[in-house]
Amino acid sequence: MEMKRLNLKWAAACLAAAGALSAAAPALAAEEQFVPLLVYRTGSFAPLGIPWADGKLDYLKLVNARDGGVNGVKITYEECETAYATDRGVECYERLKAKGGGASGFDTQSTGITFAVTDKAVVDKVPVETMGYGLSQSVDGKVFEWNFPLLGTYWTAADVMIQDIAKKEGGLDKLKGKKIALVYHDSPYGKEPIALLQKRAAKEGFELLLYPVTAPGVEQKSTWLQIRQSRPNYVLLWSAGIMTPTAIREAQGTGFPRDKMYAIWWAGSEGDVKDLGNVAKGYNAITIHNSAARGKVYDDLKTYVYDKGQGSDSSGSNTLGTIAHTRGMMISMLQVEAIRAAQEKFGKGKHMTPEQVRWGFENLNLTQERLNELGFGDIMRPVKTSCENHMGDDWARIVQWDGKAFKVVSDWYQSDKSVTRPLVEEAAAKYAKEKNITPRKCEG
């Protein structure tokens, strides 16, 4: 009996010790994936930056709330305010690139910042995701291994604008002798479409007029007086933030018809025109997605995020459902799906390194069926990337402001690859030579 009592005491002591060790040992941390969020909620571009940032943040919140992350891997994130300043963007990049096991990808929200971090990303081995902007030649994945200008570039956008103008005029041959002006933000962003437009002008025989506007773009009177004198048939507007409504008001003041204006997608959101009402009526913009449909993703966002009081659009600015907010969600969706694609190859439910996420960006295959599952089936077209093609499929439509809302007024376009691809290859080859880069070999 005495021996039995001793054995029981010994067993109890062992259990107590085991419990103490268990309490002292830290619980294994769940896998997490860090996504940096460069934003500009302040400055002259804030009217665009706020809904864009809200959309990016909202989708990451939705993935965590609805799905528990990516195969159980929670998304962590941190905003870093750039105010659209390149130096501040570089500071954000340097501070966040190694956080959380390595940044999953930088959506810089700025062509200037993209230029500045592209060389750094090669050394740091961190992907740079620039949906609809950035370096147009970075479509070439053989040279730009770490850049992903997904869904479209400023060259594809400019090409589609010319195609739509030609359609209105009765064919590309009808552009001969016409004048097309580019009013652009005098920055890397605004200058990006020039090379494509020069090539199109030479090919189609129209005259290209260039009008740079000094940032932030609140003073444009002299520009529009020149436009009144030169009398172009169409004006293409490469602006963002406060520059956009200023341009539309000046167009009205000088009598230039708004239905002869075509704006890049960053100058074509509700926030750009809602306060102008009928002043902007007829104003055209290109859009990288179907703005006529909100999609199932918004129903999920309401259920899992906004109904719980966790939505990002809490300022009363009503960005939810706007074109810019939707585009922000698309950017984060592509980021999440790159992580998911990487997990399919390197291990489901595991943290992915930046290099593994880069592989995911390069192997995206979002079919219509998959977009439907994600809630984006009515919002965008399928996209597939590859080693050679870091943009994937470029689709765009034209929307027009009717005084109260943007309405889709065209079918889907794609850029003319016989025009855009030689530009990409020439510029990429030049970049490779300047930077002493040996282009990769792509299989298949």
Brief synopsis:
With 444 residues, the chain is an alpha/beta fold. Helices cover 44% and strands 13% of the residues. Strand 1, helix 2 and strand 2 (74-81) form a beta-alpha-beta unit.
Reconstruct the topology from this structure:
Elements (H helix, E strand, L loop, with lengths): L1 H23 L7 E8 L6 H22 L6 E8 L4 H11 L14 H14 L3 E2 L17 E2 L5 H16 L9 E7 L2 H4 L2 H11 L2 E7 L7 H10 L3 E5 L4 H11 L7 E3 L6 H4 L10 E4 L8 H9 L18 H24 L7 H9 L2 E2 L1 H7 L8 E2 L12 E5 L4 E3 L8 H19 L9
Parallel strand pairs: 1-2, 3-4, 5-6, 5-7, 7-8, 8-9
Antiparallel strand pairs: 9-12, 10-11, 12-13
Q: What this model shows, in words?
A:
The protein is 44% helix and 13% strand. With 444 residues, the chain is an alpha/beta fold. The strands form 4 sheets. It has a 7-stranded mixed beta sheet, sandwiched between helices. It has a two-stranded parallel sheet with strand order 1-2. A two-stranded parallel sheet has the order 3-4. Strand 1, helix 2 and strand 2 form a beta-alpha-beta unit. The chain is globular, with a radius of gyration of 25 Å. The N and C termini lie far apart (78 Å).
